[in-house]
Amino acid sequence: MRTRSSAEARQAAGDPAEPRHRPKVSPAHLRIALGVIWLLDGALQFQPYMFTRSFVNDVLVASAQGNSGFVSRPTLLIAHFVASNIVAWNALFATIQVAIGAGILAGVLSRRAWLLRVALAGSFLWSVLVWWLSEGLGGVLTGASPLSGAPGAVLLYMVVGILLWPGPRDERDEVPAPYLGSIAARVMWLVLWAFSAFLLLEPQNQSRGALSSLISQAATGEPGFVHSLLAGVAGSLKAAGPWVDSLLALLMVIIAYCVALRYHPRMFLTISIVLGTAIWVLGQAFGGILTGQGTDPNSGPLWVLFACCMWSGLATTTIASRVDQREPWLEPVPSAPAAGGVEAVEALGACAT
């Protein structure tokens, strides 16, 4: 007979320290968020600006400038083909992104793991192509700052998609995400946050006024209230030296190691969510989506979603470690026969006869 664990016993006794229902973010919620962001990408790609040559010059050609040959040459070749029929090519790009988002959402709502796998596998292929041929590897070879989007939003799309890759359906007919609480997730978190800190320490981002200039550029073309906010922040940081970027780099390293090593992970995940939101607002101006020229929401929302995945992984690991766990002091102790018990029974039987 199965003996109840102390947690179950406390629940049965009505102990408020062990609530029966704990709020959590499930893999389905995270997949829905990822699918919605992909749909937003596709919707932004359908903007009128994307059907003009400005998209080719300001996005594709611009990503090739200053990059190494294996990035710039194929990017410029793709830009030449796209410019020949910008309407058809851009409609194809937008449709692919909408199809990825719709496929993820359909897989979640129908609980069909195979559909999720097809949609996520397609997103991986598309992310690699976009990261290489459209984002210029996220600008990591040209000294781009993580505050402006490096190492690339689509790279984070792929990482989050890997963490949400579906496993076999469980006994509750749900589609779990077995990689959420894995060592691989912690390694990816550590590498991406530590690498972002490294990018902040590059010479281009350590010059005086670099941060102020980045925020000023993000404010270009933004509506009045956003432009005023960013202009005010840029002005206040105009005289600041590289210590601001160095301090942010230090914070990123702390976030990287503390979450990866599970040292107060929820506290540092909360800090990462706040930092990711601040980067999205101040450094990326909401990804430029309010200007009519933003191709995607940029990396800020993906950092937040990545943190939510890690948070859900903490809960998954905790629950898995408690499944069928029994405290030794609650286990039934088998009673051993008393010494001479057999002889005593035989003697009593003899007396009775």
**Total strands:** 0
**What's the tally of helices?**
15
User: Helix/strand-derived class?
Assistant: mainly alpha
Estimate percent helicity: 55-70%
Name the beta content range.
Answer: under 5%
Q: How many structurally independent domains?
A: 1
Low-confidence stretches: 1-23, 319-342
What do the pLDDT scores average to?
Answer: 85
- N-to-C SSE string, H for helix and E for strand: HHHHHHHHHHHHHHH
Oligomer state equals: single chain
Largest sheet: none
The radius of gyration is 28 Å
User: What characteristic shape results from the CA principal axes?
Assistant: globular
Distance between the termini: 39 Å
Explain what this protein looks like in three dimensions:
The structure is a single chain. It is built from 15 helices and no strands. The protein is an all-alpha fold and 353 residues long. It has one domain. Mean pLDDT is 85; it is low at 1-23 and 319-342.
